[in-house]
Amino acid sequence: MSHAMRHFFSGSWPEFYDRLLVPILFEPYARRLAERLKGMKSGHVLEIAAGTGAVTRELVRTLPDPVTITATDLSQPMLDRARSHPGSERVRWQQADALALPFDDSTFDAIVCQFGVMFFLDKQAAFREALRVLKPGGRFLFEVWDRREEIAIQYTASEIVGRALSLDPGSLLAPPYHDVTMVRADLAAAGFVDLAIERLPERSRTGSAREAAIAACQGGVLRSHIESHAPDRLEEITNAVAAGFAEKFGTGPIDAPMQAILFMSVRSIAL
Fold it and tell me: What integer is the mean pLDDT of 104-127?
C-alpha cells in the first residue's frame, strides 16, 4: 500500500469515507452480498477487507445470532470507525492481512469481501488463504467493480480529476479486476470449484451534484491523488467535478447507474 493510501485510511479519512461515499456506492451492494448468506442458521462468517463495515452491518442485520461474524481489515483506523456503529458488539473485529490470515485451517463456513480483492497485490495468494481457512464445502463470495465506464459517478469524477491533475483517469480509481476469464483462472489456480458469476446493476443516488462531488473528491480514493499532486486545489477540483456532474446529471438529486460483478465459489469437500 502506498504512503498516500496509508494516509487515506488513517486519521479522519475513515470518517469521511464512511459518511460521504459509503451510502452512495457501497451500501446497495452490501445488502446484495449479505442477502446471499440469508439461509445460514449457524456457523462462522469471515469478512476480509471490511473497511468501515458497510457489509458487516448488513450481516449483523441479516444473520441470526447463532452465526458468528469476524470482520478484518488491514487498516486499524477503518476498523475503529466500523466498530463505532450500533450492533458492532456482536462482531469479532481483528486487524489482518488478507494475504496472511491469522486463523486456523478450516475455520469458517463462508467468507465475504466487498471491493477489496482489487487492491490485493497477489490475488492468488489471497485466494489460497481464503481456501485454507474455509471449511470443506464453505463458500467464498466477493464483489468487484465492473468496467470504470459502468460506474457513472466515479467515471465522470475520475475523468475531470484526471484532466485537472494531468493524470490517466483510469489510474485514479481501484485497480481493474473485472476480466472474468482472469478471475476464473486465479480462483481455479487457488483451488476453488463451482464458480458462479453474476453482474449486479445498481443505482447510485445522491441529493445533488454538489453532494456527489464532495463524496467523490473528499470521501474517496480520488482525494488521495488530489492531495498527493495538488493539495491546495481540493476545493477547486471539487467545484469542477460538481459542475461536471450538474452538466451530466442536472443540479437536483442524482440517480445514476453503476455495476459490480459478484463471484461465488466453493472449497471442494474432497480432502
Answer: 97
Q: Give the cell for residue 153.
A: 459517478
107's CB contacts (< 8 A; 6+ apart) are: 44, 46, 133, 134, 135
* pLDDT exceeds 50 at position 8: no
**Integer angstrom CA distances of residue 9 from 73, 95, 190, 220:** 11, 13, 29, 10
Would you tell me how many other CB atoms lie within 10 Å of the CB of residue 250? 11
Residue 39 grid cell: 439461509
| Predicted confidence (pLDDT) per residue in 55-105, tens digit | 999 999 999 999 999 999 999 999 999 999 988 999 999 999 999 999 999
| Sheet architecture: strand order including 108-114 | 92-95, 67-73, 43-47, 108-114, 134-145, 254-267, 192-206
Give 263: exposed, middle or buried? Use CB within 10 Å, 0-12, 13-18, 19+. Answer: buried
